[in-house]
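Lab notebook, bench 4. Still working through the backlog of constructs that have no structural model yet. Next entry is a single chain of 326 residues. Request: give me the structure tokens for it.
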Amino acid sequence: MNTMKWLVKREFWEHKGGFFWAPVVIGAIMTFFIAASIITFAVIGSRHGFQTTVVNGKTVSSVTHLSSLMTPEQQSEAATGLATGYMGASGPLFMVLGFVVFFFCLGALFDERKDRSVLFWKSLPISDGATVLSKVAIALIVAPLITLAIATLMSSLLLVVACITSAMLGLHMVGQVFSTSNLYNSPFQLAAILPVYVMWALPTVGWLMMVSAWARTKPFLWAVGAPLLTGALLSWFNAMFGFDWNIGWFWQHIIGRGLTSVMPGTWFAHHPIQNASDFGNIHSDMGLVLTQSWQVFATADMWIGVAAGAAMIYAAIRLRRWKDEG
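Model written out:
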């Protein structure tokens, strides 16, 4: 166990730029520009007004008049919506996480053969299995937790900016926002989705690790180009010769699942959200996303992918053990 801990730390130190600094920098830039947009909108609206917003049948000419036109129920609803959906501002950070994990796994075993550092690591009493699994662990557990922490901080700062700005304009929602339970539950509910992400992403992680351990050159072309070319050829044969192949299923469940599963939330593309209209309600919260995500465990698609991913990770371990370094 202590060996695994140090292996994970080693991976973090070597890839700190992608796992830590990338989300920090992008989060800081997003926070600055979104906060600046909120403040700018408030200032322009209070000074120059706007003509397109209608509240309770009345046209609002200035944001400073907004609080006087909204009923207490509407203000409470707005506060609930703000407390419920504030984590949505950090959505792009989780897209960045998907790209970071993708390219880390693609180069994880290839780069150590390319720079010959694998010879040093193999001289140590560390098994190939422990080495590969440490890379899987940092990609699927450590990196998402780091991103979640940064996303929570970023969203919280934007929430504070929004509350202060609204208070300066006469719309006092601070007490209602910070007394809403969803405000505190959302980060923990996002963290509870992590097991779904870990299991769902296994096919892509396994495929990339296997290619990374096998390819002598250009792992990206082998990992991405080969599946896309296969899909294109099958589509061409199906169109030219009139075969009744379900090419759409192949693209979605083989190529799409194999290449994009490291993107958080892609399980919804395969298993659409039930009662999706609930997301249009201002009171919808992360609990609905959490419940729908965990229901993916009841599908065969999930467990077939887990089996395939585990098999490819095992293949990556064997390839690392026997691959010719010369």
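Notes after review: The radius of gyration is 24 Å. Residues 279-283 have pLDDT under 50 and may be disordered. Flag for follow-up if needed.
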